Amino acid sequence: GGVGSGRLLVGYGLDDLFLLATGPELGAASTFPRDGASGTRSVRAALTAAAPLLLRYQHSAFIWDSEVAFTARAPEDDLEGWQSGVRVMEGLGTSDLRIGNFMGYVVGTIGFDLLAGTRTHGPDEVLRIGTRLGVDWDF
């Protein structure tokens, strides 16, 4: 499936190379559940939320992100059946030129989500491979 999300992280520079950041993340994901009776798959939307803790190493234009996050997901047909879980993710990327207090970046990511089961949904394991685009604002 696909995932799209936005996040607003607040960070603190531990030194010239390391940044620790956290904040809210909200988004949506598509899932492909299998119908138990017919065995066919359908496309379903799910709301997602997370609280990531990000450790970033940045030297010159090179970026390495390590992240752990508490996650939650609710399928469109069961907004009361939130599944909670945990995500670990790594990313490598590069930053753009700094323009004033702003600096863009792009990071390729790979991660893994483990979501607990609920009364209506079984546990899920999700492999994530993607790209993260962002802007750092230094104020």
Task: Tell me what you see in this structure.
By secondary structure, the protein is an all-beta fold. Helix content is 0%, strand content 69%. It contains no helices and nine strands. It has strands at residues 3-7, 10-13, 18-22, 25-31, 44-59, 62-75, 83-99, 102-115, 124-137. Strands 1, 2, 3, 4, 5, 6, 7, 8 and 9 form a nine-stranded antiparallel β-sheet that branches. A hairpin with a 4-residue loop joins strand 2 (10-13) and strand 3 (18-22). The model has no long low-confidence stretch (mean pLDDT 90).
List keywords for this structure.
9 strands; 69% strand; mainly beta; single chain; 139 residues; 9-stranded antiparallel beta sheet; elongated
Summarize the structure.
The chain contains no helices and 9 strands. Strands 1, 2, 3, 4, 5, 6, 7, 8 and 9 form a 9-stranded antiparallel beta sheet that branches. The protein has strands spanning about 5, 10-15, 20, 25-30, 45-60, 60-75, 85-100, 100-115, 125-135.
List the helices and strands and how they pair.
Layout (H helix, E strand, L loop, with lengths): L2 E5 L2 E4 L4 E5 L2 E7 L12 E16 L2 E14 L7 E17 L2 E14 L8 E14 L2
Antiparallel strand pairs: 1-4, 2-3, 3-5, 4-5, 5-6, 6-7, 7-8, 8-9
